[in-house]
Amino acid sequence: MISKIPFLNLARFPEPVKEDLRSKFDQILDKGIFSGSDEVLLLEKQLGEYLDSPHVVSCANGTDALEMALRALEIGIGDDVIVPAMSWVSTAEVVLLVGAKPIFIDTDDNGLLDLNLLDQVVTSKTKAIIPVHLYGKMVDMETLMAWARKRNCKVIEDAAQAFGAFQNKISAGMYGDMGCFSFYPSKNLGALGEAGALVCKDKSIAEKLKMLRNHGQIQRDKHIIIGRNSRIDTLQAGFLNVLLPYFGAWQDRRKFIAQIYLDQLKALDWLKLPLGLESPSHNVHLFVISTTFRDQLKQFLKENEIETAIHYPLPIPLMSPYKDPKEFPKSLKMSKEILSLPLNPWLSDEEVYRICDVLRRFKF
Ligand SMILES: Cc1ncc(COP(=O)(O)O)c(C=O)c1O
């Protein structure tokens, strides 16, 4: 009997990593400090160095990061915010949570927001745009920033999937006014629970974000704005500090696996392969293929014990809470054809070759 290939199984962390994580847990337990502390400060410092950001504000998750970014820029009722039709729901959810209106934009051939459509969707109320570096592939930020600056439009990068991606040596999240990261466990750098962070270049915005994540306090018991509790757990900060030194090697492994897929699958003319994976501006978070036979292919892979996923089966403006009567033909087509193959540092070469073999055997 063949063994199942999971889409992602975090129990596959190598044993030395598990040991490091256990000892970090013990250290924190012995210290007895579970909120804030030097682990959080160390994480923010290390992230700042890696991303080359003067300000890093850790927080509870990527969704909160996006929402706090909008609040810090005072975007709310009466404002429009451009968001891609194809993303994880958080990107649009946060816009409505602050009282603003999401203006959906269709995607390009890579599933990223189509920069050619910006002039068609912009309104006099457009205050911000949230480009999403979907699947880890960065949006062309030079072009986007030039467009946004001309229109006095703020840019909040949704880099939740793009930690480790750099365009012209600038990290995802560092082009815009603010960048938002998620360290959800399945991300390239994932905690053992929920976690996130914001980056920005402006000190006063960073100070405001720190207040927003901590009940609007400028100092203990002095609440000067309305905030929330979105502090990162000390444990999660500690675990991320353990995982950060492994990150580079895991990125190399992701790129290596992606190359096997590209080489092994390039002859299949019924399959569209992702582009730009070898570039530093793609962190190979997901390996997303597309075919008009998607559902049959997914089933065939399942019958062969290979787990896959769909990111995402429905464009956001087609979901009932976000209904937009406009048409998003590319996003819709994409949502029907895309399939994410397993890609993570813990897959063996043998498993990757087996997936390719099964794909080659697929008959439609
Ligand atoms: C594109 C995108 N935006 C936002 C988020 C939200 O991050 P979190 O799950 O940490 O709230 C995610 C995470 O899944 C994401 O993929």
Automatic annotation (TrEMBL):
Signal peptide start and end residues: none
Any Pfam family matching the protein: DegT_DnrJ_EryC1
Keyword Transferase listed: yes
InterPro entries in the cross-refs: DegT/StrS_aminotransferase, PyrdxlP-dep_Trfase, PyrdxlP-dep_Trfase_major, PyrdxlP-dep_Trfase_small
SUPFAM superfamilies in the cross-refs: PLP-dependent transferases
Gene3D superfamilies reported in the protein's UniProt record: Aspartate Aminotransferase, domain 1, Type I PLP-dependent aspartate aminotransferase-like (Major domain)
Keywords for this protein: Aminotransferase, Pyridoxal phosphate, Transferase
Gene Ontology MF terms in the entry: transaminase activity
Domain of life: Bacteria
Family, as annotated: Belongs to the DegT/DnrJ/EryC1 family.
Protein's UniProt name: DegT/DnrJ/EryC1/StrS family aminotransferase
Species name: Belliella filtrata
Lineage of the organism: Bacteria, Pseudomonadati, Bacteroidota, Cytophagia, Cytophagales
